[in-house]
Design brief:
mainly alpha, 10 helices, globular
Amino acid sequence: MVSLQAIELVSAILESMLYGFSIMLLLITLSCLFRERKTREFPIVILLAVLSLAVLSTLHVVLDHHHSYTSFVTGNGEAERFLDNKRYTFSNIVYFLETILADSIVIYRCYVVWQNFWLAIPPLITCAGASVIYQQLLVASLSGIFSRADYWANPEEAFAPATENWVISFYSLALATNVLATCILAVKLWMVNRDLARCLKGCQRSNIYPLVLVILECGALYSISLSTMLIVYVVRSRASYLVINIVSQIIPITFYFILLRAYVARTDRDNHRCESIFSQLVDSLAGPHETRLRQLERGSHDDLTTIPETLEVKVNSAVEAV
């Protein structure tokens, strides 16, 4: 069996790498958000969510590295020092806040995109269930039920029957929340993309389809992470200490990826609008013959590329909501 020292070392390295990648995406995301403040209403809610996830992921890294330092340096690498109940309790609180914040944002996106509260109820119920279960675990840990002097002396006590069912239930509900919310959001964007593709008829490229792919890919990445955590915990593997630290950094990374892809979609939409306005201006200044030749060169036909106003509103609402 892999030692706790090896797991702690590998966990610190992988978490640091993911955290560095997360900080890079954070800076790019903030740059894009502030760059858009002149062209659209500044998304205060999204900005607060971005900063909150950045603070929580940073706090999780600080707690883990502090624990690694005290275990390897001041604790002389003794196995008992790697099973600090206080450290895992506070790290789990941070992970819980990250999970609830990310799930709440995805559920809110589902409601905004569909404008239907009933479709947001299934992931909302699973998210609430996961929150209640994890709160019970945290309260039990903080109250000292699982913090007796000899509790962490044996690494296998982390998989005690008193907590095993609760932990499995939490990750199962968290996985269900992510799958439901991702599918509900992706289906709506796919429907808008399908209607837009029918209208464009291949004359222009839709900017919705890449956004659907990114949402599905990020949702799949997070789902795979939760499934991995669930599997390693069910088989009572010590790798669960490693996976939970990785998942805490995957949460902000997937969130930043979706924001950046939505920014690219909005940029493509605005650029297309500018090109259309410029083309109309040039056509108005040119004569009828020159205008007809320019239209033939562009290969554009008004009856094929004109987007209905209702569909344009749907496209704009979908892109802005994400």
